[in-house]
Amino acid sequence: MSERTHHEMLNSHTTLRLGGPAAELVEASSADEIVAALRKADASGSATDNAAVSAFVLAGGSNVVVADEGYPGTVVLLRNRGFSVHREGERATVRVEAGQQWDELVEATVADGLAGLECLSGIPGSAGATPIQNVGAYGQEVAETITAIRVYDRYSGETLVMRPDECLFGYRTSIFKHNNRFVVLSVDFSLTVSTLSTPIRYAELARSLGVAPGEQADLARVREAVLALRAGKGMVLDPSDPDTWSVGSFFTNPVLPASEYAALRERAGAQPPAWPGADGSVKVSAAWLIERAGFGKGHAGVGVGISTKHTLALTNRGTGTTAALLDLAREIRDGVRDRFGVVLHPEPVLVNCAL
């Protein structure tokens, strides 16, 4: 039986510790309860595209920015947890409920000798949120291993299974990110049965492990190395450390056509860290742009600031508000645009607010 409360503050349900009250908050412990809560909310509102005026779904709260005014509709808290593993030869299918804590899943797959998620260790939030952002880190992203996603379609009122080619996965995005139509209920991952990792692609991680890029390493060692790297950047949630009270990276790395990248290099008078894409585009380091536009680690706003450990993390220093956080984000975005002619875009989902 789902639990309902009214006017509960959402700041206790987000890693930023920000967010005003929800008109109604429903805790749903199963897929059936999630669907029932959404159907009830949608019956009294409208699940129209581009404007979730009746309900939105919240799980780990690690990649959302909620307005100080809160949310005027129903917030459905995903509390469906658990996962199963089906092995077949050298592959294993892991089916995980949307509300399952992500890092608990990664820890379990590493311990069970299943490769494919190890570089995604230490990421806060829930499993159901990972396809929404196409979560990625240290050379892996979930789109590489997702084989199916069970969703509730708020338009048709049906539950269906979506395949990867229907999800429109891209760099930190998917069909789910800016469309409230589909609500993730569970995710299937196809992992490799192996005590060795997938090939290490990320140079910093390879150096930490003492291997060459493209080589493999022991799964447990990879997880330990990723956790250490993330902790050093304030990217492992710590209730006692305000540097970790964030949504992780606030801005995505801009992906530029080759001509715009050439113009950026000329304007910067230097070569920004960049990664070429298969289509001729170039992904540029947002952190480099931010720092050289004058916003270094520790740059402060009103009760908020850039992390002292990582330039991409905007943090609540304990007395912040969502309005102050967005003011800081605008200051950074506009400063980078004015200095380099490049517009940064936010990675988190903005709820009842805008940048």
TrEMBL record:
Cofactors required: FAD
EC main group: oxidoreductase
Active-site annotation: R172, S249, E347
Pathway: Cell wall biogenesis; peptidoglycan biosynthesis
Keywords of this entry: Cell cycle, Cell division, Cell shape, Cell wall biogenesis/degradation, Cytoplasm, FAD, Flavoprotein, NADP, Oxidoreductase, Peptidoglycan synthesis
FAD-binding PCMH-type domain boundaries: 18-232
NCBIfam families per UniProt: murB (TIGR00179), PRK13903.1 (NF010478)
Name of protein: UDP-N-acetylenolpyruvoylglucosamine reductase
Naturally occurring in which organism (per UniProt): Planosporangium mesophilum
Lineage: Bacteria, Bacillati, Actinomycetota, Actinomycetes, Micromonosporales
Gene name linked to the record: murB_1
